[in-house]
Design goal:
The chain is of the alpha+beta class. It has a single domain, classed as Ubiquitin-like (UB roll) (Roll), CATH 3.10.20. Helices cover about 20% and strands about 45% of the residues. It has 1 helix and 4 strands; from the N terminus they run βββαβ. Strands 1, 2, 3 and 4 form a 4-stranded mixed β-sheet that branches. It is elongated and about 40 Å long. The mean pLDDT is about 95.
Length: about 80
Amino acid sequence: MKCAICKTGEMKEGQTSVTLTRGNSTLIVKSVPAHICDNCGEYWLESEVTSIVYQIADDAVKKGAELEICRFIAA
């Protein structure tokens, strides 16, 4: 699959880190499974993976985390 951003790279399966900011909370989720462009490095997440990352973010915000770094673990 071609990259939607650079239009030249190929998307390869791998892992990436995702950084999200909500209000005063910043969350870094490491080892997230993704499709990563071998040219520009842009990544694309499957919808199921995105849902898990958002749930992790919701949990961090609810507990009042200002900065949280965690590893992705599929439920």
